[in-house]
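Olfactomedin-like domain-containing protein
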Amino acid sequence: MYICLLTLVLLHAPAAFVAQNATGILVGKDHCVCEVLLPDSSFPAKRVGALEDETVRLSNRVEDEMQKLEEQDIRLDTYFERIINLTKRVEHLEKLRPEGLIEINFDLLKKEIKELEMYVTAMRAKPNANSAQVESLYKEVKNISKTVGQLETLDKNNVLKAKREMESLKKRLVDCEKNNKPKAPVTVPLGSCQHQGLARVSKPNLLQLNWKGSAYKSGAWGKDAAWNTTKKSLYWVAPLNTDGRVLESLRIYPSLFDLQMYRNAMDLPLSVLIKNKWNHTFAGQGGGMVVHNNNLYYNCYNSRDLCRVSLTSGVYQRKPLSSASFNNHFSYSGTMFQDIDFASDEKGLWVLYTTDESVGNIVVGKVNVATFTVDKSWTTTQYKPGASNAFMICGVLYVTRSLGPKMEEIFYMFDTKTGKEGRLSIMMEKMAEKVHSLSYNSNERKLYMYSEGYLIHYDVALKP
């Protein structure tokens, strides 16, 4: 057995040398072999781990830098494409004559060049940029910017030319407007009958519920409808009893504001209570009443007589209407006891009724207000129960019918001047299904409707 001297360098202790004796075996004449077991703590595991972490970080940085280079190459390709496009556009401009530059949008070109300059300048400042490509881009952008500036300067004279042409064009347009000035729309003066008849009706305008309440569904309302009346601001409301027949009183308001506020009203009784019993001698029936020259005209209760009462004095008058049907014999569809229906227009007072001889067709009668008689009448071919209501404008009868709960149609007309009748189709929207009265006012050119207890009005347009 021999003794071997071993010198070991321990890696985990920097620059440390350790000398130890060990037992060995002689092999051959001059070789000594011995076994040495080194402990685990001699291997530098911590430094190897740190080396691995550093390797990962370096790998990530390399990948990031490679990605940035790829993105930069993509941006460079994009900028090159934009510069090529701009170059082609500028070359095209250079070939134009000066007068051809008038319509060129130099502001848009300059904006694009400015953006490219900003991008290229930012890239020049980056340390990892491809300097050769960036410098090439920068020079091309500067050259294009200079060329566009020169072209814009060249265009200044053409701008003056364009301005002169624009001033000339403006003058020609002004002259053209003077020669072809559109004519103002022709309107028909109020009270005039020089027109081609009814053109259209506006949408309904709801005012309010009648003063007696929602249970009083039938009745009439409006203003003094006589043309050029002295009572143009006066309003009246006449609800029938809940039976839809009897008119016992009406209420008069001095203005629209008073009507809306239900104030300053004057009641005019038509029925009188005598010994605990109502006397209907001067009461009315149906919703066919109208106020004309401060007088209420209506159908006398339970008769074919015509009644009128002065709103000022309260004096009553009545006259029979010969052969007229009454007591709901031929009323409009949808409303009761309107066999006799008064109407007022630019030409005076009218009464619309039926007779047994007309077999329910509407008869138009012209009322002489001085004698309170019907001087002349015209029999139409329109069956009254086939209509929902009617009104007069300038001596022409217009008849309506229901097309459903929300729509009414003016479908028939009869001209008392010519004796000719005709068909038409003018739509009227409704707030409720039934039309209990409908009358025209020539002073305002409006229609007044009483429907299911509500006060509604429409504007009317005439054909010039």
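thats it. The CA atoms of residues 60 and 140 lie 36 Å apart. Residues 5-17 have pLDDT under 50 and may be disordered. bye
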